[in-house]
């Protein structure tokens, strides 16, 4: 199933729930951005690619940024609009690769592409295209915060079953099937009903993007990598557009 259909028809309605308490996730991102000293210093404009329901967008707005948030899922875009009525956030439903059309030739101070958004792109060429557009759209000394899962090393056997979230009424797990260049992700939800537990499932593809490959592409563009660590299962990169290189 295509990624948009998977989210709109299946995963989006569980998206915020599977991450836990919404306000806590926003607070975690505020603390993360503060750790990286990301507060408005230049234009104050920020771009959130693959914004989901708004964990990063609302955190950036809380810190004083004027945020443009983009996601392909109509369900998640609607949820973010409802959650951000008092925030300086513009929300657009579109493929993240099309973000430049919403900037109206203005550059931004901060770009974030977090969660596992990068692996949702269809091809490696599209990843390179996105990274190039991010570089071109950043102000000099602007920062790009990127997180993604490194699927380079295969999990085997029962380790391919990943528990995601559960409560007394729902259980969400996923199963990974490794292919050359991508993985098939099967999301499985068990819902408690009067008749017992009901299972529904849906699948989509993710790219198998390696950390070294991403770092090489960023540095080739002219980014300086100021941070690269594994945090809560996600590779977290902070890349700064060097002021001496014209973009």
Automatic annotation (TrEMBL):
It holds the Pfam family Methyltransf_25. The keyword Transferase applies. Residues 47-142 form the Methyltransferase domain. GO terms for biological process: methylation. CDD domains: AdoMet_MTases (cd02440). Signal peptide: none annotated. One of its GO terms (molecular function) is methyltransferase activity. Keywords: Methyltransferase, Transferase. This is Methyltransferase domain-containing protein. The lineage of its organism: Bacteria, Bacillati, Bacillota, Clostridia, Eubacteriales.
